[in-house]
Automatic annotation (TrEMBL):
One Pfam family hit: DUF4293
Keyword Transmembrane: yes
Entry keywords, A to Z: Membrane, Transmembrane, Transmembrane helix
Name of the protein this chain belongs to: DUF4293 domain-containing protein
Entry's transmembrane regions: 7-26, 61-80, 92-110, 130-147
Record keyword GTP-binding present: no
InterPro entries named among the record's database cross-references: DUF4293
Species this chain originates from: Pontibacter cellulosilyticus
Length: 161
């Protein structure tokens, strides 16, 4: 049923992936020139001190946004598969793989692609959006745990009949 705790976890997963689309993931500032590079779910933008109002897109990072949308769509579809718990568990496993790919892609763009654009002594700062795939993995694991618990409960009741 939709009012189960796993549905709440999956809904929070959807909300965290949607929030990731709008939050910055990583930023790095060059101390000498003042240039700042910001990674979002869609691109890497470079901001100079003179044009701080609008950034110029330097590289495309659309893979991050597409993976976040895929994870949100899978979780939303998984909520409404409450009649077929085995299908829900399979979708949960698929979503785990998508979220792991999202986390790896975000790290790749932050550590390698974005780090090359600005010469600075430090590696940059991970922003709030970077940690949302980790939250998504936790929420997905909790939802899968409660889905499995429901399936085990149904099987134990079937055994008693």
């Amino acid at each position: 049923m939709i009012q189960r705790i796993q549905s709440v976890f999956l809904l929070l997963l959807v909300l965290s992936m949607v929030a990731m689309l709008f939050l910055p993931l990583w930023s790095k500032t060059d101390a000498t020139t003042g240039e700042e590079v910001v990674l979002t779910a869609w691109n890497i933008k470079s901001y100079m001190p003179a044009d701080a109002a609008e950034g110029t897109p330097v590289k495309n990072a659309i893979a991050i946004g597409m993976l976040a949308i895929a994870a949100a769509a899978i979780a939303l579809y998984e909520i409404f598969q409450f009649r077929n718990r085995l299908n829900q568990m399979k979708l949960g496993l698929l979503n785990t793989l998508v979220l792991a790919a999202l986390l790896g892609t975000s790290f790749y763009y932050a550590a390698y692609v974005g780090a090359e654009l600005v010469e600075a002594d430090h590696n940059g700062a991970y922003e709030a959006g970077f940690y949302l795939p980790m939250l998504g993995l936790l929420l997905n694991a909790l939802a899968n745990r409660f889905i499995k618990r429901d399936e085990d409960l149904v099987r134990s009741v079937d055994r008693l009949r």
